[in-house]
């Protein structure tokens, strides 16, 4: 007697997760304004889960010699990795210009992420990068430097970088972005990233 089994193939559509990272620990900076705008816009355009994390919320016990050992890495930082980074398939970094590059706290953050779960945090994920500056260059050098770091970590960086110059002149007194050209550029980058 022969028994035939019909194979059933089910299509399971997983909801992707995007994490937006505000790349400075400076309190009340304009970087956070821009990052929150990205957060709100992506929430309105996508069914994907969207989370927001600011480096101003990094645990104070992160830095020190304990940071460089997976067994002694602050559990508070491990919680951040588990919630915001490991489940994410896509990352958006909003990066202010500090001394012609990206902030040291952002490098510390990346270094800490590479201690316990480098592969789970970075490998084969996709990222969009946004540079922000009050000056003229929009942190283009910082974006180039950070692109190299991301590629080294195994992240696929979307080629459509967005350097934003003179950002302080593009917001009103209530810290709303009012520059139409910038709003259009952000929307274009987000739409490209959602398809990326």
Question: What's the helix and strand layout?
Answer:
Layout lengths: L16 E6 L7 H16 L3 E6 L20 H11 L4 E7 L7 H13 L1 H5 L3 E7 L7 H13 L3 E2 L4 E3 L15 H16 L1
Task: Offer a concise description of the structure.
The protein has 196 residues and is α/β, with parallel strands linked by helices. The protein has helices at 30-45, 75-85, 104-116, 118-122, 140-152, 180-195; strands spanning 17-22, 49-54, 90-96, 126-132, 156-157, 162-164.
Question: What is the mean predicted local confidence, pLDDT?
Answer: 89
Please provide the ordered H/E string of secondary-structure elements.
EHEHEHHEHEEH
- CATH homologous superfamily descriptor: Flavodoxin domain
What's the number of domains?
1
Low-confidence stretches: 1-13
Q: What is the class in the CATH system?
A: Alpha Beta
CATH topology: Rossmann fold
Q: Do you know the CATH architecture?
A: 3-Layer(aba) Sandwich
Query: Which class best fits the helix and strand makeup?
Result: alpha/beta
**Annotation field: number of helices:** 6
Q: What is the rounded Rg?
A: 19 Å
